[in-house]
Fold this sequence. Notes:
By secondary structure, chain A is α/β, with parallel strands linked by helices.
Amino acid sequence: MSLLSLRNIHARLSGREVVQAVNLDVAPGEMVALVGPNGAGKTTLLKAGIGLHPISRGESRLAGEPIHSVDVVQRALSLGYLPQERRLAWGLAAVEVAALGAPFAPPSVAIERGRSALDLFGVGELADTSVFALSGGERARVLLARLFATEAALLVADEPVAGLDPDAQLLCLERFRAHARGGRAVLMTLHDLSLAARFADRIAVLDQGRLVADGAPSQALSPKVLKSVFGLKARWIEAGDQTLLVADRA
Amino acid sequence: MISRLQLNLLLGAVLLIGLVPAVLFGEVALTGTQLQQAFRDWTSAPGEILWQVRAPRAVAAALTGGALGLAGAILQGLLRNPLADPGVLGVSATSAFAASLAIVSGLALVPGVVEGAAWAGALLCGGALAAFTARIREPEALILFGVALSSFFGAATALVFNLSPSPIATAEVLGWLMGSVEARSWFDAIWAVPVLALALFLAWRAAPGLKMLTLGEEAAAASGLAMGRLKMAAVLSASLATGAAVALAGVVGFVGLAAPHLVRRAAREDPARLLVPSALAGAAMLVLADLAARMIPTDQELKLGVFTALIGAPLFALIAWKAARSWRT
C-alpha cells in the first residue's frame, strides 16, 4: 500500500486552478522527486497532498486513509513536512528548533532527537547556537534536522537543498535516500534535474499543473519532456557510476 | 545562561523590591516614626496612606503591567512579530471606547460599570479576533484586521468626545485615555486577579503553539498541534489580560511592547518561556514608572500612560531599528 496516494487532485490558488487531475503514489522504500519549471504547481500539489491546502476535486490518502479524516496528531507522527519558507521568527538555539520536530515526545527525548538529527546533518556542534547567528546554509540544515527529528515514515520536503553548498546538497540527499531505504518514503521537489536523476527512484514531472511524466529518471526526463517542459536541449552522459544531464536552452 | 525558574525568581524579586519604595514613598513624605506607626497600626493616618492608598495603587500598577507584559508576549509570539502589542490588534482601542461610552453616558457614578464596559469591549474585540483567527491562518491578515479595529474604535472614541454633552465627562474620558492607577482601591485591584489567572492559564495552554510558530504557519500547521485552538486560546488570553489592564488603569501603552523585549534574551528567545518573565517584567516596569510619575515634581501628577509613552516611543524606534537589522540577515 502507498504511504501517500493522490487521486485526480485538483487545487486552486487565488482562483486559478494550478493543479489539475494529478495522480501520484509514493510507496514505502521510494524516494520520489517532483520536478517542473517555476509556477508548475509543485508546492501547491505538495501542500494539497498533505492536507495543508484545499483540494477542489480528487482525494489524497495517507497510508490508505483519506488525509482529512486522519487525526492531526497521527498525521504529524506519520508525515514530516519541510516547507519552502525558511524564515524563523525567533533566535532559538539550533537544538531547540530541531527538537520542534518531536512536539509530542517528553522534552528531554525531543532535545535528544533534535541533537541526533543535527549530527546527521553535520551541524551538531552548533546545537547551542542561536539560529540567528547561523549562516543561511547552516539554518537550512537545522530545519532539515527538524524534519528528520519527526521520525515520520513519510518525509515531504519542498526544495530541501535550496541554499545548501554542493557538499551539503549531497549529504542532504544521501540522508533522504537512507531514510527511504529504511522502508520509509520521501517526496520532495527539486530544481536540480541531475541531482533528482541521481538520487530519486522515481521522478514526477509537473507542467502547468498537470503531471506529464512519472517514472524512472531516464524515462521521466526524456529529451522530449526536457524540451517541451523545461525548454532544454539536453542529453544524458555517463560519467563513471553517475549519469549527468548536459543541457542548453533549446 | 540562567534557568527558567531562576529568571522568574529574579524578576519576582525585582518586582518585590520595586514594590517597597512604591509603598514607602509618595507625595506625602512620612517620617521614620510615622512609618513605624503605619506598620504597627494599619488604621492610623500613616497606616491609611500606606495600606489603603499607596499599596493598592502599587498592586494595581503591578497587575496592569503584568497583564500588558503577558498580552504583549502572547501577541508577539502569535504574530511572529517583535513589534506587536495589545494596541496593534485593537483590543486597547475597543476597550477604551467602551469605557468612554460608559463615562459619557453618566454611568461612571455606578461602581464597576466603567471597568465592566472596558472588559466587555476587550472581550468583544477578543471574540471577533478569535473568530477571525479560526477562519484565517495568515498572521498578516490578523494584524490588518486588528489595525482596522483599532482605527475604527479610535475614531469612535473621538466621536464620543465630539458628541459628549458635558465637558466634565469629556475631561473624565480624557483622563481615562491617558491611563493612571491613581486612587485605585484594593477592590479595584483584587477583582482583576482571577481574570488574570484565567489569562495565564490560557497562555500556558497556548505556549507550545507559540513556540511552534517560530517555524512559520505552514510547518506549525503540519506539526500535529491543534493550532487553531491554541491560537484562539492565545487571542482570548491576550484580550482578557488587556481588558484587565484597561479596566484597572485606562490606556497604558508600550509596556506590552517593551516588557517582552527586556527579557527575551534571558528567556532564550523562546516565545513559550517568555510569557511569565514578560508578565513579571511588565509588572516591575509599571510599578517603577508609577513611582517615578508620582515622585517627579510637577504641578499636576504625571499620568502613567503619558509617562510610559514618553519612555516607550523611543524604545519602540530602537526595537524597530534592531528588528529591521535582524530581518535583513
